[in-house]
Design brief:
The complex is a heterodimer of chains A (262) and B (256).
Chain A: H1 2-19, H2 25-50, H3 55-65, H4 68-84, H5 88-93, H6 98-128, H7 137-162, H8 168-182, H9 194-200, H10 206-216, H11 225-256
Chain B: H1 2-20, H2 22-45, H3 52-72, H4 75-82, H5 85-90, H6 95-125, H7 134-158, H8 165-171, H9 173-179, H10 193-198, H11 201-214, H12 218-250
The chains are: A mainly alpha (262), B mainly alpha (256).
């Protein structure tokens, strides 16, 4: 149990620190702190141009949805980064239990994703002059954390794909794009075709964004409990599926000697 | 003549390499389609007099810009990673002639991007396009490619001192989408943004494409777009001379 806890905490933290070997402030600030602000502004102005929804609608949608960048890319990097540094084989040959090994690596990713979303929300609201009620801030922080958790679940699937696909950046960008369209971040779900809004129910962010908008409109945490629960459930399902895929591709990689294929 | 032949051969080679790259050849074409799709949905659901045709051309030029901005910033950096930068700098040709085909190649992928977005709008959203002035429209596309290639060249030589040059290229994707009138008219943006937009060729390229497609006077916009593209090119040559001289003096070309 103690060994598992050490793998979870120390292993996860070490892996995340290794990510900062190349994720310097020169990269982190433009991609994680400035780019989401421009994404929020872009869609808020497109919304104004198209006369569709208010700035608040796009602020909340895009601030939360942008958490997908740190969550998807960092989880993908969990595999491709190890492969690049030629440590993937050493990790997967170790007898360490896989659940604490992989979950430990996802914990800092969740925290970072939530930080990026919260920062974007705060700065975006200041720039656009969107007022969020003070009473909504604590539940909004919880929703942001749950959204980040949920997307990190999807990030597990992305990490598993990285065991088989070389171009992880292309796959991560594609998933980001689908989330941008489907989750209601910019297009109201009732304006999407039926099959798309149905598919959106099974994607990270859909329920969190809806919950965040209700909270900003004055709802209490209890009012959006169902949405938050649904978002959590989506994250758990993706996490389990991703873990299963990781184990499957690990076995396949050993069998076909393709772990180090780069 | 020899320089033109050199440019043509290098452009062909670079274009082939870009099309073989999953990131530049596939990712950079598919990625803007996601944004185009959002734009189509937003404009279809909205109550604006601006139509899906307006969004279609805007999204198409957005895609053209994406293919340049994300990769041109690191065009020189890539040569460094491949270990070919020193060889290219030492080549008897002016370095600008060696690097320009790489960014022109990226801008040319943008034409594929433009076509993909327009077809996407046609078949998925039923956007029927009728080009009012076909010849000026074709010229506007060529002008857009050339000016984007020039701006990409300026990015490539300006960012070479940064190890994370690719980030700076990415960084300019959203701001240019926002302020150059692709999907948001300049009139909606604060006044202080306008002079910045006017100094950017994508603003004039977008105007030229729309004016030629929807009916208007595209030639002044096209002239401004080409003029700015030429300006970026001249500035890029000056910057590359200065950067390379400094790198030679300090032995810092490899940045290791």
């Amino acid at each position: 149990m103690i060994v598992a806890a050490r793998i979870f905490l120390v292993g996860g933290l070490t892996s995340f620190r290794a990510l900062w070997y190349w994720l310097t402030p020169w990269i982190y600030v433009p991609t994680m702190l400035i780019a989401p602000i421009f994404q929020i502004l872009l869609f808020a102005y497109i919304g104004r141009s198209a006369h569709l929804r208010s700035d608040e609608f796009y602020l909340l949608g895009n601030a939360l949805q942008y958490a997908s960048i740190p969550c998807l890319f960092a989880m993908g990097q969990m595999v491709s980064g190890e492969r690049y540094q030629e440590t993937l084989g050493a990790i997967l040959v170790s007898p360490a239990a896989r659940i604490p090994l992989f979950l430990g690596r996802s914990l800092p990713v969740i925290v970072n994703g939530a930080f990026v979303a919260a920062f974007s929300l705060a700065v975006g609201s200041l720039i656009l002059g969107v007022h969020l009620p003070a009473s909504s801030l604590p539940p909004l922080a919880l929703v942001v954390l749950v959204a980040s958790f949920s997307c990190t679940g999807l990030g597990f699937v992305n990490a598993a794909i990285s065991l088989r696909v070389r171009e992880n950046a292309v796959a991560s960008n594609a998933i980001f794009g689908f989330l941008l369209i489907f989750t209601g971040a910019n297009v109201p779900l009732d304006s999407l075709p039926g099959w798309m809004s149905t598919a959106a129910e099974g994607m990270p962010f859909t329920h969190a964004i809806a919950a965040a908008r209700k909270l900003a409109a004055g709802a209490s945490l209890g009012d959006v409990g169902g949405l938050v629960g649904a978002e959590l459930l989506v994250g758990v399902i993706y996490g389990i599926a991703g873990y299963g895929l990781l184990r499957f591709f690990e076995v396949q990689g050993r069998r076909h000697a393709t772990l180090e294929r780069s | 003549m020899s320089s033109l032949r050199f440019l043509a051969v290098s452009w062909t080679l670079q274009f082939k390499m870009i099309m073989r790259s999953p990131f530049d050849g596939i990712g950079n074409v598919v990625y803007p389609l996601f944004f185009a799709t959002v734009a189509f949905f937003v404009f279809r659901a909205g109550h604006s007099p601006r139509t899906l045709v307006y969004a279609s051309f805007g999204a198409a030029v957005m895609g053209m810009w994406s293919s340049v901005s994300t990769s041109a910033g690191s065009a020189m950096q890539r040569e460094r990673w491949w270990g070919t930068l020193e060889l290219l700098v030492a080549a008897p040709r002016h370095f600008a002639l060696v690097l320009l085909p790489a960014t022109l190649g990226l801008a040319t992928v943008g034409v594929y991007n433009l076509a993909a977005t327009l077809l996407w709008g046609r078949f998925l959203f039923g956007v029927h396009l009728r080009i009012v002035h076909p010849l000026p429209f074709a010229l506007a596309i060529v002008g857009t490619v050339l000016s984007f290639g020039g701006l990409g060249f300026l990015f490539a030589v300006s960012f070479v001192r940064w190890r994370a040059a690719w980030v700076l290229g990415n960084f300019f994707e959203y701001p240019v989408w926002l302020i150059c009138g692709f999907l948001v008219p300049l009139a909606l943006l604060p006044g202080w943004v306008h002079p910045i937009a006017w100094a950017l060729a994508p603003t004039w390229a977008m105007n030229a494409v729309r004016e030629s497609a929807l009916g208007g006077t595209p030639l002044p916009d096209l002239a401004a777009c080409l003029g700015l593209g030429l300006g970026y090119l001249v500035l890029g040559v000056l910057v590359s001379d200065r950067v390379l001289r400094a790198a030679r003096q300090r032995g810092s070309l490899a940045l290791t």
